[in-house]
Amino acid sequence: MSSFPVASPCICVLCRCAVTSDKCCWISSCGVLCSGSRDFHTQESAQGEAMAARGRDGGKINTELFTLTYGSLVAQLIQDYEDDVEVNKQLEKMGHNIGLRLIDDFLANSGVGKCQDFKETMDVISKIGFRMFLGITPTVSKWNDDNTECTLVLDENPLATFVELPAAHSNLRFSNIICGVLRGALQMVQMRVECHFVKDVLLGDATTEIRMKLCEILEDQAPPGDD
């Protein structure tokens, strides 16, 4: 892989963390793989701000750019770890770190007040959060009796656009970063949750579904550090 001089930090298009590198691909401080030329990333960092603005207005983000960046991340992790289970863990961990930061942007720009319970929280995440950042609106269904577990049904998944998993990677949860983002964001509003994919169109299912479980309401505490 060729290298080029970088005179000033570039910006990660997912969380806008500043990074500096003399390589064409690098891992930013949030753990997201960046790839391509410096000019590409400095240009797209400005577009990232515009995407966030469009998301706040309910518009759809630039899914092609997002897919390109995310696909590069997953490919790099597969090369580094050579184990789908470990890749799944890394994707979830990266998503968790992003979620810890993303919640501030969401609260600042969504106009959403404090939710009364987990059910209302999931409704807000589905109708506003996903719409703001991914341009989609999952359906919330399959609640248990005490409203502590539910399923997010994604009729479309921008991260998986144009993706086809080889048979050798049947254990890969390609979009597992979403679970990490949900866990991190909800942790910042005092909800400890578990979430995992139960269905995935990339694995031959008709829909993509994420099972959510509220484990504990946390006491107020100082913001946690990164994992």
How would you describe the overall organization of this protein?
The chain has 227 residues and is an alpha+beta fold. It has helices at 38-56, 63-81, 84-110, 118-134, 177-187; strands spanning 10-11, 18-19, 25-27, 33-35, 139-141, 149-154, 191-199, 208-217. The strands form 3 sheets. Strands 5-6-8-7 form a 4-stranded antiparallel sheet, covered by helices on one side. A two-stranded antiparallel sheet has the order 1-2. A hairpin with an 8-residue loop joins β7 and β8 (208-217). α1 packs across α4 and α3 (84-110) crosses α5 (177-187). The chain is globular, with a radius of gyration of 17 Å. Residues 1-61 have low confidence and may be disordered.
Summarize the structure.
Helices cover 41% and strands 17% of the residues.
Q: pLDDT under 50 segments (min length 5)?
A: 1-61
Q: Would you report the number of β strands? A: 8
Span between N and C termini? Answer: 30 Å
Rounded radius of gyration (Å)? 17 Å
Name the average pLDDT: 77
- State the share of residues found in helices, binned by percent: 40-55%
Sheet having the most strands? 4 strands, antiparallel
Strand order of the largest sheet: 5-6-8-7
The fraction of residues in strands falls at 15-25%
- SS-derived structural category: alpha+beta
N-to-C series of helices and strands = EEEEHHHHEEHEE
Overall outline = globular
Q: How many separate helices?
A: 5
